[in-house]
Structure formats: structure tokens, C-alpha cells
Design the sequence.
């Protein structure tokens, strides 16, 4: 009996010691001014995301944003532990422009290491979207469980039954130009007729890189891409987009097509052609042609009874002189000069005015 009493007394002393320690800790925090969770220091809070963007297709939406690389104080970050994605869904016919956006609980997304000197992109895809509804998204990043950034920019769009995939896309190459043409999209993916206006977004890829939008939405069924370099391959896709009062919905993209613009513009015609007769040869000279892709010149000779001149030589820039070391044994003949560029095959100008030589 005595042993039980002693054990109870020991337990009571331990309980009172623990309670005393807790009271001291709480009193100490209160004395330091901490009444809630401490605020994380600025050197670990990430800067907010500023480039949240989205891309719609017939399946849903994909969101993109760049990993923050700095804290709000400007210090470098090495890791983003996670992202919080917030989403709000509002029926389009009851949306209020001045009402607060009803964001729900965040969706937790994994982060990762921040790549120094190289932008790192995060993505999130959402499918099974509700037709006739507006969707809003924003994101926050964390560099620790209690170090959360401020809100990113908010993106919003309307979702409805998407238009069908675009067909019959063709690409025709010309000199410094690629012309795209396609057939109109008139039905949704479920086969119902589209009543809303339809616009088209062109996407372009260069050198095997990702497809990126080429300009704004187009109303027509043809686009001329003049921001191209001859000899370089370009790939294109086109997406139909239905326009609603509260937003727009993109459908499936077309099959990719490719084209290579070809230089078909010849350099200018040489001027100032002259022929100087010596005892054994003829020197032909002319004025230089000012052309950025000029490769050189071709020299032609014609006898009086010939309708078509014969090429007798070719010189590269910067030379504007050709020596005919084997002139014909005739009383008179003629010379003309053309210019050529670096294309393969070369584009050749019209011949210059002929000059005559007499024995």
C-alpha cells in the first residue's frame, strides 16, 4: 500500500513539472510577442509567379508557369518544395464581374530544384471541364511548408463543347513566304453545328522546336507567313476556336504540315558593261551589283549569226573583270553579263545590254 502511494506521488510530481515547463514556454513566447505562428523571413519566401498562362484543346486545359528563382528580397532560390493550384468554377450565365472569385481549396502539386541560369516550366492539366462554365486559376509556390508566395496572376477562360479538329491544312512555299490554307470548321466534336463565330489560331515550329502561336486569331482561311528564312524548314498546325461572349474555346489541332521557302528572286542586271580589245585577248568589265546574297557573274559571248549567246566564263564577287583569252576568229562578236546569287540552283538575272567587239 505504501509503494502505491509513493508511485502516485511520483506521478503527480512529474505532471506538475511538465505543466510548469509548458507554462514557462508559453509565457516566454508571449513575452517575445509571438501570439500566432511566426512569419517566415523574406529571404525564403518566393517571389510570386507572374506568367501563369493556359492552352485549351479538345480534352481540356493545360496551365504553364515558370518556377520562381528569387525570394521577395532578391536572394536566389535553390528549390521549390511545392505549388498550390487554386481553381474556381462559375456558371457563365450567372457570372458577376464585380463579385469575388470563389476559389476552392488548393490542389497540391510537387515542386523541384530550381535550375540556375535556365528557366524551368511547371505544368498542370485539367480535363472533364463543365460546358457553359467559366474557370479561374491562380497558383502559389512554396519554398517550405510555411514559406508561401503571394498569388500569381489569375487566368480565366470559358469552357464549352469544343469545335472539331481542323482538316485539309496545306502549306505552299515561295520566295521568303509560306502560304497556309485550310477548310472551315463548322461542327463541334460531338457533330452538332457551330452557331458561334469561329476563329483560327496558327502555331509554328522551327528547327524541331515546340509549336508556338503565330500572331493573333485569324478570321479567314488563309495566312501568309513572311517572317521566314529561305532554305529553312518550318512546321505548322492550326486550331479552330469558337468565340463566346464570356470567352473562347479551342478545339483539336490539325495534323502538322511543313514547308521550306525557296529563294527565287534573281539579283539585279549588271550595268556599265564594256569590252576592251588587245592584241590577243578581250577584257570585259562591268559595274558591281549591290545585292546581299550575290555570288558572282556569268559572261556570255555571241557571234552575229547566233541567236543565243554561249557562256564563256564565270567569276565570283568581288571581281568585275573577265578576260576572254580565246576570242573568236570573226569580224565582230558580242558580250553580255548576268549576275547570280547563292541559291541552289542559283537565280540568274536577265543578261545585260550587249557590247560589240570588232577585229
Sequence:
Amino acid at each position: 500500500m505504501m509503494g502505491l502511494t509513493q508511485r502516485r506521488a511520483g506521478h503527480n510530481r512529474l505532471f506538475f513539472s511538465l505543466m510548469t515547463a509548458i507554462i514557462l514556454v508559453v509565457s516566454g513566447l508571449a513575452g517575445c510577442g509571438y501570439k500566432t505562428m511566426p512569419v517566415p523571413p523574406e529571404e525564403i519566401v518566393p517571389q510570386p509567379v507572374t506568367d501563369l498562362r493556359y492552352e485549351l484543346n479538345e480534352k481540356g486545359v493545360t496551365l504553364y508557369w515558370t518556377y520562381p528563382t528569387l525570394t521577395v528580397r532578391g536572394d536566389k532560390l535553390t528549390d521549390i518544395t511545392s505549388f498550390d493550384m487554386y481553381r474556381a468554377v462559375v456558371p457563365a450565365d450567372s457570372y458577376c464581374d464585380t463579385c469575388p472569385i470563389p476559389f476552392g481549396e488548393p490542389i497540391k502539386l510537387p515542386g523541384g530544384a530550381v535550375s540556375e541560369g535556365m528557366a524551368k516550366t511547371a505544368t498542370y492539366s485539367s480535363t472533364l471541364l463543365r460546358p457553359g462554365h467559366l474557370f479561374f486559376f491562380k497558383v502559389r509556390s512554396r519554398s517550405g511548408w510555411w514559406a508561401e508566395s503571394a498569388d500569381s496572376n489569375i487566368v480565366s477562360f470559358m469552357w464549352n463543347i469544343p469545335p472539331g479538329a481542323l482538316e485539309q491544312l496545306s502549306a505552299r512555299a515561295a520566295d521568303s513566304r509560306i502560304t497556309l490554307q485550310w477548310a472551315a470548321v463548322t461542327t463541334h466534336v460531338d457533330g452538332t453545328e457551330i452557331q458561334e463565330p469561329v476563329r483560327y489560331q496558327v502555331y509554328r515550329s522551327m528547327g524541331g522546336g515546340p509549336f508556338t502561336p503565330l500572331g493573333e486569331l485569324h478570321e479567314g482561311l488563309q495566312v501568309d507567313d513572311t517572317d521566314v528564312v529561305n532554305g529553312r524548314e518550318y512546321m505548322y498546325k492550326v486550331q479552330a476556336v469558337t468565340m463566346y461572349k464570356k470567352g473562347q474555346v479551342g478545339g483539336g489541332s490539325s495534323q502538322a504540315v511543313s514547308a521550306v521557302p525557296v529563294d527565287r528572286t534573281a539579283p539585279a542586271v549588271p550595268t556599265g558593261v564594256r569590252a576592251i580589245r588587245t592584241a590577243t585577248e578581250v577584257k570585259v568589265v562591268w559595274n558591281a551589283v549591290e545585292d546581299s546574297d550575290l555570288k558572282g557573274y556569268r559572261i556570255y559571248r555571241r557571234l552575229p549569226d547566233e541567236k543565243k549567246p554561249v557562256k564563256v566564263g564565270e567569276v565570283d564577287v568581288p571581281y568585275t573583270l573577265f578576260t576572254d583569252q580565246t576570242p573568236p576568229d570573226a569580224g565582230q562578236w558580242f558580250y553580255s553579263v548576268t549576275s547570280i546569287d547563292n541559291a541552289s540552283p542559283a537565280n540568274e538575272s536577265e543578261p545585260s545590254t550587249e557590247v560589240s567587239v570588232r577585229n
